[in-house]
Amino acid sequence: MNPTEKPSLKSLKNRRRRVQLSAADLVRETPLFDSQSLPLSIEPVAAELRLTIWAQQNRDRLLSRLHTYGGVLLRGFQVRDAEDFGAFVAAISTEPMTYSYRSTPRSQVHGKVYTSTEYPADRTIPLHNEMAYARQWPMMLAFHCQQPATEQGETPIADSHRVLAQIPEVIRQEFANRGICYVRNYGDGLDLPWQEVFQTQSRQQVETICHDAQIDFEWWGDDRLRTRQVCQAIATHPHTGKAVWFNQSHLFHISNAGAAQEYLKANFDPICWPRNAYFGDGGEISEEILEAIRAAFAAETVVFPWQAGDVLLLDNMAVAHGRRPFSGPRRVLAGMADPYSAAGGVPDAVAEDVPKLQQEVS
């Protein structure tokens, strides 16, 4: 075009199209660590990009990355408040979940958004998969850091398939064959009351929930409840087909009670301990086995510092999470979604007609 000529309307339209940003141009994707594929970091190129709006427009892409990497750190987006975070979870999931059959103390913040586990700041929460102590669990888990701690307070994560591979074969096979039995006693100041765990004041409703979830129960003492449930130790991920370590044996076992362990052993019969884990046939799980499991988690742990506004999206079966001790104020919210149950609700390890674990772990 001659410099003295005015551009045509057609050329102006073409020029405008060339400078428009595509969905891919709005964000950059990079592994957070050079030597680790977990987590994938997604950051906006320009400021003031609202996470919920971007996620609504890029849902398939985001879920594809989640299934590929297991964990996605969304950093630098605008997340206005707990309501906005809840809207993000709803936008990318099919069914946001209420936190029911609880294991830890949490507070409801807005809708189906909760505080992360409210344990004392000086306590470590070992890595685990959310609700792996049950037969139904969320496939998707999201955390939103509103305020990082002054020191530490990270949420470490680990690839559950790689954790399984780290556990010695003889231990893997024993858990696959025998499953895990969780025994819980509620209330009396030693653990959560049954009213909080089951989110009801009705004994009849508790019994209905237990029947539906195949949880054995008994009432004893002064309004005390004891439950027993046999669950999976190793599960197969429905999207990737990979075998994953998927249980909370090392959390529920009495050896995880810390300083309270000796008090409980000295003053209570084992059947009355707040919680404990056994093999599915009732056999004891040795501390040597539990140490091997904890070592497997330690070998695969990935840690990054929280930044205010971060959202961490996890495939709950593919990736475990925990919490490190911290000092100073810390506020991390949590949301879970997309309930999933193993086929038939019966763990492979206790079903006589299901063959032993055959999948090679690499």
UniProtKB/TrEMBL annotation:
<dbReference type="InterPro" id="IPR050411">
    <property type="entry name" value="AlphaKG_dependent_hydroxylases"/>
</dbReference>
<dbReference type="Pfam" id="PF02668">
    <property type="entry name" value="TauD"/>
</dbReference>
<dbReference type="InterPro" id="IPR042098">
    <property type="entry name" value="TauD-like_sf"/>
</dbReference>
<dbReference type="GO" id="GO:0051213">
    <property type="term" value="F:dioxygenase activity"/>
</dbReference>
<protein>
    <submittedName>
        <fullName>Putative taurine catabolism dioxygenase</fullName>
    </submittedName>
</protein>
<dbReference type="InterPro" id="IPR003819">
    <property type="entry name" value="TauD/TfdA-like"/>
</dbReference>
<keyword id="KW-0045">Antibiotic biosynthesis</keyword>
<dbReference type="GO" id="GO:0017000">
    <property type="term" value="P:antibiotic biosynthetic process"/>
</dbReference>
<keyword id="KW-0560">Oxidoreductase</keyword>
<keyword id="KW-0223">Dioxygenase</keyword>
<feature type="domain" description="TauD/TfdA-like">
    <location>
        <begin position="48"/>
        <end position="336"/>
    </location>
</feature>
